[in-house]
Amino acid sequence: MIPRSASPVSFDALPNPRGGSVRSAELALAEAQLALEQRGDAAAALLRAAQAFREAGWLGAQKLADALVLVSPLTAAELPEEPDARQVFTEALHDFRAATTRHNLRELSCSPILYGHYQALSALISQRTPGFTVTYEDFALAVRPLPPVSFSGQPAERLAHLRARYERALLPVLRAHSSDGAASAAVAALTRAALDELDACLAELAGPDPYDFWRLASACARSLRVSGHLVGDADARRFHARCNLALADHARGSTLASRSLVRATLALLWRDYALFGAAAEDAEHVELLHDYGLTVDWHVAATQESEALWEAGATEAQELGAGGLGVTRTRELGVLTVNAHAYEDFLQTADAAIAALAEHARGAGQLEKADPSEALQAGDAAYRLGAAACALGLGHVALLADALGLAWRRRAHAGVSTPAVRAHVIVSAPDAQALEQGAEALRAMLHKIAAGVAPPAAGPALAALTRAIEQG
After folding, report:
1. In this structure, which of 77, 123, 196, 201 has its CB flanked by the most CB atoms within 10 Å?
2. Does 191 lie in the same domain as 97?
3. Domain co-membership, 238 together with 190
4. Helix (H/G/I), strand (E/B), else coil: 28
5. Residue 422 has pLDDT above 60, yes or no
6. In terms of DSSP H, where are the helices of 43-134?
7. What is the mean pLDDT of residues 302-320?
8. In the prediction, which pLDDT does 305 show?
């Protein structure tokens, strides 16, 4: 993964020139911005945008559009107690419009910039709706299933020793943030040493279980440092502080990590990989993300300069198509407009993935005879389909395919028979009926897409997979 600044000054991810667009939503957002400039009512246009994003399965975009709808009355009224509402709304709408034209679904869900706007809008909403709170993980991981995550077994004495080491190392990290910014080289070195110690403690806590929280936390800590999120990053500090609280829960005998902690940790680990892609050296983290139903793109660019050249080429391609110099064939799938070549490529990928899933599903009813490697192959086939759907803009298909990939992953881990691992693994295999129902729902969605019809939301199939995945 290419290191990034913890405080980006532009949008996070590369544009997706072959990705689908929700033109009706883009037009509605433009209408809302014009209404704002003319002191009119933007709510009706924003409602149309939110509905279009919902139909397309662009859940991150839908969340932000819904928040804009709720805040829009504050900008029209110009209430004296809301002096900043108009500015917050204007900045959010401007950046949101720009992001939607980049056609990158992962950016729309994982962008810290867009989440910052969502958070600011939600703060205005919460003043009139007590208890209305938002978190980054709720924005990035909306409606995605989450498997139970355990604390690996540790001798009490060893756990107490690691907890003491972790607390000693955490203190200088928190103190470094509270300094005046003119820290000496000695203080900086002390902070780096403390971060090294935190990483070492998490690595020692990590167990062999595929769904061990400390394994996930150790990967998250390493990823945050590689991507440049150090003591100046509030999310990184909060993560380390919450791990300290989790250590206390573990020491008191808790066997399962809290759902909110797992979701927050997983969202942080996925964030930069989802935005910037992964390189060969990130393979271990990509496999871990697959264990939780998340996929990333593989990037070969080794420098930010090479990515800048790629982005310039993508922008030029979009401008040529828009100007008529390079005619781009498109297909309409409900509210989604897709590149015809990308659509045809997706159908080929989908055919291969569904064929592989059907082959593996035939033996799903006999777990005792199941081959974990075949279950992993089935999961990989579902993930390939999910990643292709995400790239094309088919949000509903991507979500269901990722959930099915996660279900097959858990199926594989439940079938592990290696004694060194099996003694620890706490994984319930999703039932065959949920796997079959998910595959059939995917097949039906793909048949509609092949016929040029927009697929509906996953509905009951996703709910069944979620129940199967989240059972303890």
Report:
1. 201
2. no
3. yes
4. helix
5. no
6. 43-56, 59-77, 85-100, 105-110, 112-126
7. 54
8. 57
- Per-residue pLDDT tens digits for 252-271: 999 999 999 999 999 999 99
Q: Locate tokens 């930010």: which residue?
A: 304
Is 99 within a domain? yes
Mean of pLDDT values over 239-251: 95
Domain shared by 348 and 270, yes or no: no
Q: Are residues 262 and 352 in the same domain?
A: no
Residue 38: domain span: 23-134
223 is a domain residue: yes
How many separate domains does the chain show?
3
Quick one: pLDDT at residue 450? 95
Would residue 4 count as lying in a domain?
A: no
